[in-house]
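Reviewer has doubts. Consider these tokens.
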Amino acid sequence: MPPLKHDASKDADDGKQNEPSKSKNDVTVVPYVGGDSDIGFGGGAMLSIARLKPNYEPYLWRLESVSLVTFKADPSFAVPYIDAYVQLALPHVIYDRMSVELKLSYTREDLKYFGLGNASSVPESVPLSDPRYAYRREHPTVYVHSGTRLYGPLLLLLGISYTENWLRIPENTLLAQERDHGTARQRDALGPSSNHGVFELSYGLAWDDRDNTVSAERGQFHTARIDLAPGGTEHVPQTWARVNVALRVYVPLVRHRLTFAARAVSDVLVGDPPFYEMQRFDDTAAIGGANGVRGVPGQRYYGKLKLFSNFELRSRLFDFKLFGQKDAFGVAAFTDVGRVWSDLPADPLLDGHGLGLKLGIGAGVRIYGGKSFVVRGDIAWSPDARPIGGYLAPGEIF
């Protein structure tokens, strides 16, 4: 959601020394070698240009561009991930009342499918990189999202997006076999899988009283959202909906130095969603990957219902100046936990019995670029990891 800060004056006393006395540009350019243990490592660049202006928090506007190409040699040399986007955030289209965010992106990614449901398993003797579990998705996307303040920190969220999807699913993969010859629930969930478009309309409410939308130290940010994909055409055939509820809390333990952050997410799909949506929330992996339950391999678990939580301790150890800009270095420790269900009612064959929680624990570093940008690097262990997960990404996880 685009940043939209409530009651900018409430932090005037705390932030007076750091507030710019006049308008200026906050520029962060970070070339890096990164990626993660799921998609491989490679090279990319992150650029953020934010226009800072007194009384406009956190900025008047920000233009962000991120690109990444990764490489992997397991089992053979490949380029599993290409991603690039340009995003313009306008938090004060109507001052302190309405924000708009525009984004154009392109992604080509080699993904994994290890089975449907929480009880899916991969033999220890079989590597996760086995081609039998692989498929490819290529998808350019354009979207426009807006947030309008209704009252105080209460926001109305609206969005519209279109994604073109090109899929490559080899016939000898587990995905193709279960799509064509699996149980009734598997066949229903995994097919069809031809190239297609997805047109989505998004409606939601948010409560946002964070002190900073880039890296909050105190406050709350809660969202409830419904995404509707009406379908109904030959190229946009599938009709489905997503109901997503996310609760986020930020508690300062040591002012400006140590913060406790927690998030709980529920993501439910109904109707006939594309199969790849069953491992995702907010366009990223849920039970696994860099933005969900870290340590668990990305796309490890697929299901129409996903529940997970993240708990982090974030510190800012020291400040430093680079190119005349005040930056900071910090570390973080975290625990992530979650679960999926193939559908409701649960299928014991696919979803197992009992809690079935998936766990990830780890730590990482943070580099804060001025007031408008964060780079994070995390290392995480999980019972599902082989042996650990490593992630380098722009922005806090939440």
In short: The chain has one domain: 8-394. Residues 63 and 315 are 27 Å apart (CA to CA).
